[in-house]
Amino acid sequence: MMADTPLLTFRDVWKTYGTGEAQVHALAGVDLTIRRGEFVAIMGPSGSGKSTSMNIIGCLDTPTRGVHGFLGIDAGALDRSRRAMLRNRYIGFVFQGYNLLPRTTAAENVELPLIYRGVPGRERRELAMQALAQVGLQGRESHTPAELSGGQQQRVAIARAIVTQPTLLVADEPTGNLDTARTHEIMDLLTSLNAEKGLTIVMVTHEADVAAYADRIVSFVDGKIASDTARMETA
């Protein structure tokens, strides 16, 4: 893959559900390019196509037609198992609900993706500790989710997402369950991971103040991109 190859591309991407009169176009001919190191926020009202596009970006779904390129290959043409391999190797996920195992420690939660990869125990623990330190949770490694605040739980979830050193972080409403102060803490953390580590981030949010942290805001309406604006243009 050439260095200037975009990380991710949509070329005339459609996603259609149902048939006949019940047919719905969740995405209707979307063109999108995301390059390495970008921080992109995806916005739009309910039913606009933002969640559908996120699922395709994260290799959780495939287009009905059109091309979803990821790292220079047609990810939409891969079978389920090969898409899973791509996802597990290159993409980290952060969700609104944290999705932590309740009876396990922060470190054990962060180790989970490494277990799936077959990484040996000692190396797993070392990498988990490094990831937790990156998100500012030194000293909390042995705490269970119930012993952590919502913001700290989301930091554990981010550590779990970055412990495999992914190329792309997909964040779906990452601050949706947090108060204003914790929201800004999490967004400052994501911004620093993008700026200092070069981590590419694609984030779905319905909050304009959260989207404002991104370098670029892509807004969906009725399955199409209504606007695609770099932050410098909005200043």
Task: Write structural notes for this entry.
InterPro entries: AAA+_ATPase, ABC_transporter-like_ATP-bd, ABC_transporter-like_CS, ABC_transpr_LolD-like, MacB-like_ATP-bd, P-loop_NTPase. This is ABC transporter ATP-binding protein. The protein has 235 residues and is an alpha/beta fold. The chain has a domain of 164 residues: Rossmann fold, CATH 3.40.50.300. It has eight helices and ten strands. The strands form two sheets. Strands 6-7-8-3-9-10 form a six-stranded mixed β-sheet, sandwiched between helices. Strand 9 and strand 10 form a beta hairpin. The protein starts with 7 loop residues before the first strand and ends with a helix.
